[in-house]
Amino acid sequence: MKNKFRNYLQFLLLLVFAQSCSKMLLRISGHIKKPHLEDSKSIKKYCKKAQDPYDIIWMASTKDYFDKIIYKHPGSPDVLIYDKHFNVLQNARGEECHKMLINFFNDSTEYQYKILVDSSYTFLKQKTLVVDSKSIFEDYDYIVVYSWFKWTPRLTKDLFERLSDIKKTNKFKILFISLNKDWQKGQYIRPPKISNKVKNNGRANAPKE
C-alpha cells in the first residue's frame, strides 16, 4: 500500500509539474495519448520517426532507478543545460521551469543565468542505460539533457523541433542527450490509466504493479 501511494504521488507531481512548466513556453492543447509500456527498441524507433535531434538516448536501467529519477526530476518536457564541467546552468531570474533556459542559446549575451555545482548529471548517467548513440564531439561546450514522454506527442514534438533548430543554427558544440520517461516493459505490468485531457489537479491512476 505504501509503495502504491508513493507511485501515485510521484505520478501526480509529474503531471502537475509538466503542466506548470509547459505553460510558460509551449502552446498547450492538453491533448495526450494513451500510454503504453515501452522498451529500448520502441523508443529508438519513435525517436527516429519523430526526428529527435539526439546524440544519445537514455532510459532508466531499473524500476528502482526510474522511480528515483521521476521523484527527483518529475517534470516533462524538461531541459537541463550543463557546461563542459558538468555544472548545471540555472536560471537567475526565478522562473520555475528549466526549459526556459533554451533561450540561453538564442541570445546568451542577454539571458541571465548562474552556474550551480551539483551532481544531477552524474545522478542521471549512473541510473540510465544508453539506448542509442551517434557520432558525438570529443570536446563540447554544453550538454543538454531533455526529458519527454511518447504519450504527450504535441509537447514532445515541440520540444524536438526547438532543440533541432538550436542544433542546426547554434555556433556552440552541444551534446544532446534525450531522456525518455515512459513506463517500461519488465518494470510495470501495465501502463497507468489516464483521461484524454490533463485535469487541473493532475489526477490520474497510478501504474499497477
SSE map:
Layout lengths: L1 H22 L16 H10 L6 E5 L2 H10 L5 E6 L4 E4 L11 H4 L6 E4 L3 H7 L1 E6 L8 E7 L4 H17 L4 E7 L29
Parallel strand pairs: 1-7, 6-7
Antiparallel strand pairs: 1-5, 2-6, 3-4
Distinct helical segment count: 6
Largest sheet: 5 strands, mixed
Number of strands: 7
Number of domains: 1
Q: Beta-strand level of the residues, as a percent range?
A: 15-25%
Helix content: 25-40%
Which overall shape is indicated by the principal axes computed on the Cα atoms? globular
How far apart the termini lie comes to 11 Å
Widest sheet: strand order?
2-6-7-1-5
Task: Give the SSE string.
Answer: HHEHEEHEHEEHE
Instruction: Provide the structure class.
Output: alpha/beta
**Rg calc:** 17 Å
Mean model confidence by pLDDT? 75
